[in-house]
Amino acid sequence: MTIRDWALARMIAHGSDAQAMGRAGIEVHRTNEPSVTVGFPEPANQPFGFEDLERFQDELPGLEAVVLIKRDLQFGVFEEGRARGIAVSEFGHFRSSLAESHIGDFISREHAYVRSRMSRFREVMGIELVGLDAWRVLRSSALPALILQTHDRYEFTDDELWLLLDKNRDMNPDIMLITNPNAHGVSRRVRDSATSIDVEVLTLDDMRSRLSRR
Fold first, then answer.
1. Cα–Cα dist 176/128, whole Å
2. Which residues make Cβ contacts (< 8 Å) with residue 65, sequence separation at least 6?
3. What Å distances lie between residue 49 and 12, 13, 35, 93, 137, CA to CA?
4. Tens of pLDDT along 7-61?
5. How far apart are CA 19 and CA 17, in angstroms?
6. Which helix H or strand E contains 95, and what residues bound it?
7. Would you say 93 and 106 are in contact if contact means Cβ atoms under 8 Å apart?
8. Cβ atoms within 10 A of the Cβ of 12, count?
């Protein structure tokens, strides 16, 4: 069974009117909204990249979404997809996005929370999603933009730090941002590991002082 076949079975089981399209696509029919064509790349060790996006768009006319299941994403492909009108997301977010007239307008609850919290800081001139859980923060004055990788669980361990860095190995984030409101700090071990590779690990409460520094 391919990952497309697995996803199709799950969607049909949950009441979606969907059918297979090509080798790795699904067409989802919606009530009172246009149908949506979505591609499902197979799980692989290598990230889903620019050439993969190009191939899926060629193979699936009208492609509007690519859903990644057990597949990492090359940095930059999320924004390239958005420029082409293709939303790149994970399976749960894609299913939720089907309620939108245009699925690219969907904002998850977690992403809305991050955007809301970050927008409260006066140093932030803009914030844009540039990956599945990665953000570019535009700052005032002559300060450079910051790339953030978010993590929403209460505890952030050393193992999770290295796992996230490996999943996003071409992103080079400035900050690993813990967005769970109940998190109040990180361990010395995590801070030492992050410092060794020039990455900061911060909570949302830590961000105010960080935003004013280069």
1. 16
2. 36, 37, 38, 39, 86, 87, 88, 89, 94, 97, 103
3. 29, 30, 26, 20, 23
4. 999 999 999 999 999 999 999 999 999 999 999 999 999 999 999 999 999 999 9
5. 7
6. helix 91-97
7. yes
8. 13
Q: What token pair was written down for 188? A: 């010395």
**179 in Cβ contact with 151 (< 8 Å):** yes
Residues 167, 131: Cα–Cα separation, whole Å: 12
Q: Which amino acid is at 204?
A: L
Task: Find all residues with CB under 8 Å of 205, minimum gap 6, and list them.
Answer: 184
Three-state DSSP state, 124 = strand
What are the φ and ψ backbone dihedral angles of 130, each rounded to 5 degrees? -125, 10
Side chain identity, residue 99:
A
Reported as a single tens digit per residue, the pLDDT across 126-140 is 999 999 999 999 998
pTM, two decimals, is 0.92
User: Could you identify the residue written with the tokens 């979404």?
Assistant: 65
